[in-house]
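Page 37, continued from 36.
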């Protein structure tokens, strides 16, 4: 029995509470995952999982093994990384998760600059708008817009996200420019459907120094920020959009900012990664590179 491989499969099952999801994570079929767990249980002489038709949960013995094996395999990974990639030879693969909008707009140009310095570091990019579990997805570094990621993660702020209300010149010529919240609510608007909740997100507005959350009459709802930007640019309606996504449109006159007093910048963009005593050298170089660009104002 390949103990390291079987323990990795067990950890995937424990993290996802699902043979099917664990199978996707480790590249096996669900029956193969089930057989590996049964083999491990037979080898140890204890039951590690409670199985039902709907869910898999850890027994007390399974919980103890999870705590010990998770820490042990992390140390093993770090040892292998430190051995294989010395400070003199910075090479290898970095796995990154980010939203579609940040990934396409900011991350790809950033990686191009980084690889000019470290051409032997390669990247595996996962773009999705849901929050990504770094451990389950085996991600080294994640980027997230919104609130600061939670506990058990190291989060580095890359800066605030300004949200501005804007429309295309064609839309404003046809429908006029609202000058108050009451007028805004009579206009055609776009909405963003949150990928985690499936609900259309209310607009966050700052009025008289206070934040309010306002539902708007959305004539079209979209689940990707880039698509919403295109919809507003095409004149479908008024939208509330991140400043980093529309800076070029505003400068070129393709979009016009309206009701600027309502703009907010409470949310932020964060880089986050697992708490580890020794990050692989290649990952540390990338994190330092990103933060250097933030300090220099070259990442917005």
């Amino acid at each position: 029995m390949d103990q390291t491989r079987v323990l990795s499969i067990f950890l995937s099952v424990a993290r996802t509470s699902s043979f099917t999801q664990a199978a996707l994570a480790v590249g096996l079929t669900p029956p193969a995952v089930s057989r590996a767990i049964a083999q491990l249980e037979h080898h140890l002489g204890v039951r590690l999982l409670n199985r039902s038709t709907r869910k898999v949960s850890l027994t007390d013995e399974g919980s103890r093994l999870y705590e010990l094996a998770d820490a042990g395999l992390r140390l093993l990974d770090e040892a292998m990384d430190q051995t294989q990639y010395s400070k003199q030879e910075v090479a290898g693969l970095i796995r990154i998760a980010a939203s579609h909008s940040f990934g396409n707009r900011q991350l790809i140009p950033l990686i191009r600059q980084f690889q000019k310095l470290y051409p032997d570091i390669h990247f595996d990019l996962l773009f999705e708008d849901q929050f990504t579990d770094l451990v389950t997805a085996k991600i080294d570094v994640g980027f997230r817009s919104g609130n600061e990621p939670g506990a058990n993660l190291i989060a580095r702020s890359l800066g605030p996200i300004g949200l501005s209300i804007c429309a295309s010149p064609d839309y404003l010529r046809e429908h006029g420019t609202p000058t108050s919240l009451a007028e805004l609510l009579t206009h055609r608007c776009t909405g963003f459907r949150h990928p985690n909740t499936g609900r259309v997100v209310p607009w966050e507005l700052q009025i008289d120094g206070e934040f309010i959350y306002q539902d708007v009459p959305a004539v079209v709802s979209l689940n990707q920020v880039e698509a919403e930007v295109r919809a507003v640019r095409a004149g479908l309606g008024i939208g509330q959009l991140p400043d980093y996504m529309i800076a070029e449109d505003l400068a070129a006159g393709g979009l016009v900012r309206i009701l600027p007093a309502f703009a907010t910048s409470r949310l932020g963009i964060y880089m986050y990664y697992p708490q580890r005593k020794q990050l692989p050298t290649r990952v540390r170089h990338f994190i330092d590179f990103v933060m250097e660009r933030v300090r220099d104002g070259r990442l917005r």
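The two ends are 50 Å apart (CA to CA). Flag for discussion at group meeting. Residues 163-262 form a domain with the D-Maltodextrin-Binding Protein; domain 2 fold (CATH 3.40.190.10).
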